[in-house]
């Protein structure tokens, strides 16, 4: 809670003469010498011989104001308190603008409580009436510190105070709306926004942008876009910030067509897109896998004399890596360097990690050497990426050497580093060393997260050490570690492998009762399907398949192979599975899951199991619809990038 009426704080005991001398040494008539023996009263009573009456104003006041500005600029708050104390003792005039200077200094020093304290001292202790200017200054300090609850509390207290009699202005409303939006009180912010014209103020571009951001954060993008239309009607000129807020929200939502229209709208309104606009669009295109469009947009950015920055290139390179095209990302890095930029450690770590995952270890090592040669110092992220790549290649000894070098250079391994080593040792069948890495983590005060636990459980289960895996599972539960899909699936696989299918099914049912982030994936379903097929229990396998479809999980190639093998080996008479897969395609199409259905068709063609003519017609019709939609989206982006 805010202390709305704080007590007067004590003053520092620095030497006033030392503090004031540099500023008043040229005005000897104001500062006559005084002996150290005459200290019965405060020294300041001897400094100014021509004492002033309360409320009077003379040239000495200007000197005090200069002191305030200088001490505020240097954030010397102890000396500021001395000056205020001396001014009060000498009954000098306090001006609001000087307090505003001090409020800004407290904001710069991240001391909002001190600003609040001084605001409440203004009227009583220093006899300086607060107005909306000083009120807004303190409110801004609190908001900039992210103390949004306190900001609203301070606002409500001041506005309700009859003693202060302060009326909010447009700036006040902007600050309060920002605080409300940051707290998720968007409806309250909209209500206050609608009340602004009633108070004879007009919302400005900052007001609209703030409210748009709050609405977009709550997923109310359509309402935010409608505010842009309202701005046009009200004659408020939308700035780049407002457009960027909306473009970012639409890209995040995946609505690239509307984002493209907004960019066109920007040009029509004479509002030039900046690097934030382009970075947002590049990010949106990368999320959709439209990497060529993103490259074209990058070229357009250069043509429009908007210089791409590290964020632009980093986003594009990361997009290529996520699409399994790290080599293309490396070519973007070359383009970056040709234009005078330098790849940072995050770009290199993304590329090195991506190349290693794609099995292009030699290329990753070349990039590593290139990074060192260009003077880009590797950090924990880059070292961890290289260690992960070496572990994927089965080069555990080299990975250990890199880990030693990493430690020697003062970079601490993190959970990802150790997880890569554990996974690597389990992959080569050395579970003993994997467990030693687990213990090494604890000795180095590196926390075991859910990923580490999942790797350990998965490795132990694959190594046939079910009891040890169960012990780790219980430890995970007792410590409150969040169970993820990998941990559940690994444990289910271990139980099914040990012919404890019913226990595995119980864990599966537990997953179904969990939140959306821990729901079974296609790997989990395939584990259970395979277990029931091994037991020659095809009916229970079909039950699991039905749950799989109801939960929105599409079968993959492994799912199909499991059922085809079961129908071929465990059904009398044996079946080739053509009718089974054909029916599966129909069921998926009826559920509007065209991609999943097309994958089953692909499996059928590989197995020379031709679908029925009616099934062909159905799947072709669905694929044609999606292509038309895709064509329309592509045309929108072609107009944007031309």
From TrEMBL:
It comes from the Eukaryota. Pfam families: PPR (PF01535), PPR_2 (PF13041). Keywords: Repeat. PPR repeats lie at residues 169-203, 204-238, 239-273, 274-308, 309-343, 344-378, 379-413, 414-448, 449-483, 484-518, 521-555. Belongs to the PPR family. P subfamily. This is Pentatricopeptide repeat-containing protein. It comes from Psophocarpus tetragonolobus (Winged bean).
């Amino acid at each position: 809670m805010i202390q709305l009426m704080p007590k007067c704080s004590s003053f520092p005991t620095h030497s006033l003469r030392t503090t004031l001398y540099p500023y008043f040494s040229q005005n000897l008539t104001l500062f006559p010498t005084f002996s150290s023996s005459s200290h019965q009263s405060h020294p300041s009573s001897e400094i100014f011989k021509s004492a002033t009456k309360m409320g009077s104003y003379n040239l000495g006041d200007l000197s005090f104001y200069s002191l305030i500005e200088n001490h505020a600029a240097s954030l010397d708050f102890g000396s500021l308190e001395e000056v205020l104390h001396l001014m009060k003792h000498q009954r000098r005039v306090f001006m609001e603008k000087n307090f505003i200077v001090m409020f800004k200094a407290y904001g710069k020093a991240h001391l909002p409580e001190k600003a609040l304290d001084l605001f409440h001292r203004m009227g009583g202790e220093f006899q300086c009436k607060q107005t909306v200017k000083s009120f807004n200054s303190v409110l801004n300090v609190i908001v900039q510190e992210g103390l949004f609850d306190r900001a609203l509390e301070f606002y409500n207290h001041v506005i309700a105070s009859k003693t202060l009699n302060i009326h909010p202005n447009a700036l006040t409303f902007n600050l309060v709306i920002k605080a409300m939006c940051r707290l998720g009180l968007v409806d309250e912010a909209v209500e206050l926004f609608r009340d602004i014209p009633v108070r004879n103020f007009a919302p400005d571009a900052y007001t609209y942008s703030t409210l748009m951001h709050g609405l977009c954060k709550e997923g109310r993008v359509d309402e935010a876009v409608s505010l842009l239309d309202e701005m046009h009607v009200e004659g408020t000129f939308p700035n780049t910030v407002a457009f960027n807020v909306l473009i970012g929200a639409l890209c995040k939502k995946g609505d690239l067509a509307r984002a493209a229209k907004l960019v066109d709208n920007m040009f029509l309104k004479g509002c030039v897109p900046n690097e934030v606009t382009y970075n947002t669009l590049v990010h949106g295109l990368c999320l959709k896998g439209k990497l060529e469009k993103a490259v074209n947009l990058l070229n357009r950015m250069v043509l429009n004399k908007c210089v791409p920055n590290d964020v632009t290139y980093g986003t594009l390179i990361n997009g290529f890596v996520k699409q399994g095209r790290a080599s293309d990302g490396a070519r973007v890095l070359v383009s970056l360097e040709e234009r005078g930029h330098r790849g940072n450690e995050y770009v290199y770590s993304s590329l090195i990690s991506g190349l290693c995952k794609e099995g292009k270890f030699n290329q990753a090592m070349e990039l590593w050497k290139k990074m060192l040669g260009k003077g880009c110092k590797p950090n924990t992220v880059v070292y961890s990426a290289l260690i992960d790549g070496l572990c994927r290649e089965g080069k555990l000894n080299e990975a250990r050497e890199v880990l030693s070098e990493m430690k020697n250079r003062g970079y601490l391994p993190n959970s990802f580093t150790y997880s890569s080593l554990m996974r690597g040792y389990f992959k080569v069948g050395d579970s003993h060393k994997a467990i030693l890495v687990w213990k090494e983590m604890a000795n180095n005060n590196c926390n075991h997260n859910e990923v580490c636990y999942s790797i350990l459980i998965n490795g132990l289960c694959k190594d046939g050490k079910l009891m040890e895996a169960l012990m780790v599972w219980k430890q995970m539960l007792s410590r409150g570690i969040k169970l993820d899909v990998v941990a559940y699936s690994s444990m289910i696989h271990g139980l099914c492998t040990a012919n404890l299918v019913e226990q595995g099914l119980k864990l599966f049912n537990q997953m179904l009762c969990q939140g959306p982030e821990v729901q079974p994936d296609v790997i989990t379903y395939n584990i259970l399907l395979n277990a029931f097929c091994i037991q020659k229990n095809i009916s229970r396998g079909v039950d699991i398949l039905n749950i799989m479809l109801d939960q929105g999980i599409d079968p993959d190639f492994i799912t199909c192979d499991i059922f085809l093998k079961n129908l071929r080996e465990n059904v009398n008479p044996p079946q080739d599975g053509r009718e089974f897969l054909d029916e599966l395609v129909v069921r998926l199409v009826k559920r509007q899951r065209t991609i999943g259905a097309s994958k089953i068709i692909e499996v059928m063609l590989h197995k020379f199991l031709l679908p029925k003519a009616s099934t062909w017609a159905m799947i072709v019709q669905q694929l044609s619809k999606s292509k038309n939609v895709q064509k329309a989206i592509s045309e929108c982006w072609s107009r944007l990038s031309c």
